[in-house]
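Good day; I would like, with your permission, to put a structural problem before you. A protein sequence and the structure tokens that stand for its backbone fold form the material at issue. I would ask you to consider whether the tokens describe a fold that such a sequence might reasonably adopt. I set the record out below, with my sincere thanks for your time.
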Amino acid sequence: MPVRRGFIAGAGLAALGLAGLALYGSGLMGGNGGMASGPCAGSAPALTRIETAAKGDVAGMQAPKQSKPAPDLTFKGPDGTETTLAAMKGRLLLVNLWATWCAPCKAEMPALDRLQAQMGGKDFDVVAINVDTRNLDKPAEWLKQAGITHLPFYADPGGRVLPAVQRHADSAGLPTTLLIDGAGCTIGVMKGGAEWSSPDGLALIRAALGR
């Protein structure tokens, strides 16, 4: 069954209880015209591949006109100690922000789990970061109840990651997903949910890897 598409505004929706509200922003993404320059110039070929592969169940993935360094994110790893996004350089990353109060986020988690099971390894990983700041035992318990077994548990109870990614991606809500290449450069942004483990999703990741 396809994952329910949706996008939840990040500011105050938990209090309002509008977990199912779908809000899609226009953003800065779309097209990859112009001369590539700067620290992410080497990522330019991947942008063309992403544009071509973003279709069907992952048609919402948008490549930027020019790639730029991913935001400097710090969050807690599976062992509870702090880690950084920069420490994960060297492989393709699908960085997904989710929360237990975000219905579209929870709807796509099984597909992200399957994607990690099928393609996760030395060249690629799904980094799903929980952004709940209350009831901090709830996210890990929800993952267990939902049968999510292949995704390591990353979390940002301090609330630093969400605003940083929102600024970077020009995104106002959840779920938001960044596709980051091995050089640490953003080569795609998805605003809303997707069926990540579908044939379209797998083809997108292979294209990003240049396969």
